[in-house]
Amino acid sequence: DYLRFGGNNSVSEVTKLQTFLKTVEGLNVDINGKYDTKTIEAVKAFQTKYLNETMIPWGVKNPSGEVYFTTKNKINEIYLWIIYKEHRIEHVQFCIINKRYSKSNTERSKK
Length: 111
Known about the structure:
- By secondary structure, the protein is mainly α.
- 65% of the residues lie in helices and 0% in strands.
- The chain has four helices and no strands.
């Protein structure tokens, strides 16, 4: 689903985009499911930040404010990296807890 002003945009996809821009990128955007002026400006700010990955591949140096292939890919890349990091943290925490539990049980069985 590609998103743009005046397009036949999915409300849920726009809401996900706005949530990402606000919570991950810290941009000033309302989470309302509408591809409005604030959303366009936030997308432009995102595209400017990641210009080499979002616009330059198309031979364009200025942000468009529209979410097409390369912008969507960059958003997904960042989002997946966040999920990966959270998963790794949970995995490490589980291993630490499991190791402590195993050590505790081993000590009990020696008594």
